[in-house]
Every structure is written in structure tokens, then in C-alpha cells.
Design brief:
By secondary structure, the chain is mostly helical. It is built from nine helices and no strands. Helix 1 runs parallel beside helix 9, helix 4 packs parallel to helix 7 and helix 7 packs antiparallel against helix 8.
Length: 168
């Protein structure tokens, strides 16, 4: 549970907050432009990624509008219509679609970012990320480095958004 505690600390003290004390964690502000990785996936990998992403947002039995919005954005980046059904793949089967490290790392980065879409990582989401990471062949140190990178990227995006605010 160390990761969840670190995220809460990071969100509470590093990411700018709105007037109601919630962090600025909006998918529409963090997912601008085209994600080259998701657009470059082949059809089998897109289905596998969709299955993993759907499992991640449903892991805590609480589907937030931010998670739904981010998954919709990811579908669009993969050119998958909203009507595309989520394939019934387990973690092992979905993970097997990503054969190279250069495809597995971006999957984990995207999934870690998706876990943060609602501003928190539930223990169930954290456990599922660990299972996916294990299925993809990552060590605990690899997963921590990937999650740290996602947090740094989010902090930079939020910093840039603050610079673009009127009166800043």
C-alpha cells in the first residue's frame, strides 16, 4: 500500500488544487493531442489494452466520470467507436498481446495514468496494476519507476495549466 500513500501525499502537497480543495485532475486537460502509442497499436493490441483499461477502472467497483471520460478519450485515440464492446480477456491473455518491452512500458504508463484519473488510487486498482505488471514481466522497482514518471508528468501538465490560467 506504499504507492497509494505516496500518491495521496503527492496529490495533497504537489498538485495545484481548485477552490474546493480537489486536485486539478481532469482527463480533458491531461490528455490533449494524439497519443502516439495508443494510435500505433495493432487491432489485437487495441482490444487487449481496452480489456486491461476497463478492468483497471472497474477494479474498485466505483466508476468515476473522470475514469469514464479518460477511457473514452483512449478509445478515440485508438480509433475505436464507443460501441466497441470490451473483450472478455483476463490479465494474462491481454498482457500476452504486448511482446516487447517497448510496447509493455507504455501500457503500464497509460494504465497508471488511468488509475489517477479520479485523483486517487484505490487499493484494488493498485493490486490489479501489480498483477498486470507481473504478467508483463516487470519488477516492483520497474513499476515504481513507471508510476513515479506518471506522477511527474501529471505535475508538469498541472504546472503548465496553471501558467495558462488568466491572471497567472
Amino acid at each position: 500500500m506504499l504507492f497509494a500513500a505516496n500518491i495521496c501525499f503527492y496529490i495533497d502537497y504537489r498538485i495545484p488544487k481548485a477552490a474546493d480543495n480537489r486536485p486539478f485532475m481532469k482527463p480533458e486537460t491531461t490528455r490533449r493531442g494524439i497519443n502516439v502509442f495508443l494510435a500505433a497499436l495493432d487491432d489485437h493490441q487495441k482490444q487487449a489494452f481496452l480489456a486491461l483499461a476497463d478492468a483497471v477502472i472497474r477494479a474498485d467497483d466505483r466508476l468515476s466520470h473522470q475514469e469514464e471520460a479518460m477511457l473514452a478519450t483512449m478509445r478515440a485515440e485508438m480509433a475505436l467507436p464507443e460501441s466497441t464492446p470490451v473483450p472478455a480477456l483476463d490479465v494474462a491473455a491481454a498482457s500476452a498481446a504486448f511482446g516487447s518491452r517497448s510496447s509493455r512500458v507504455p501500457v503500464m504508463l497509460e494504465l497508471a495514468g488511468l488509475c489517477l484519473a479520479d485523483g486517487e488510487v484505490a487499493p484494488q486498482e493498485e493490486a490489479l496494476l501489480a498483477r498486470i505488471g507481473d504478467a508483463l514481466g516487470f519488477t516492483a522497482a520497474d513499476l515504481m519507476a513507471q508510476r513515479d514518471w506518471v506522477l511527474r508528468q501529471l505535475a508538469l501538465v498541472h504546472e503548465a495549466n496553471g501558467m495558462m490560467m488568466e491572471g497567472a
